[in-house]
Design goal:
Belongs to the TRAP transporter small permease family. By secondary structure, the chain is mostly helical. It is built from five helices and no strands. It is 76% helix and 0% strand. Helix 1 runs antiparallel to helix 2, helix 1 packs antiparallel against helix 4 and helix 2 runs parallel beside helix 4.
Amino acid sequence: MLRLADSLDMISRLTASVIRWLALVMVLVQFGIVVGRYVFGYNIIAVQESVLYMHATLFMLGAGYTLLVDKHVRVDVFYAKAEPRTQRRIDVFGHVFLLIPSMLVILYWSWPSVRNSWKILEGPISVGGIEAVFLLKSLIPAFCILLVIQSLSLLIRLLLPETSRPEAKA
């Protein structure tokens, strides 16, 4: 089971290793937009939209990795002061009854919109923008799938006996 969890973690790590470069590209493109607009008085809407696409891609595809490294937002009213065993129970509850079901619901309800967007190759958000809204909408199911994969990995680790968990050996 630990090997399966490691394999699932690798999906998040590989995704993050590719998309992390979008942060740098996004900053450089935004800098170019500012220079182009305020120094040269030149503006291209498609380039402006590309920042939106990169930003969405970075956050939607990076969510699984964020969960893996435990840097996601956590409402820790009870969690922070709880014993490790209680924290594990809270985590299991969160994965089984909140995260996985909500991702499956979002996946189910967003799929028709994504499918239709691909069917018509949905065009730009703005006139002169990027003619690929269908790619932007495809981030929704990708986000859901990556979060479910990472959630399953964490759930496997949470349900392993105490002695076989990697953190127990450290």
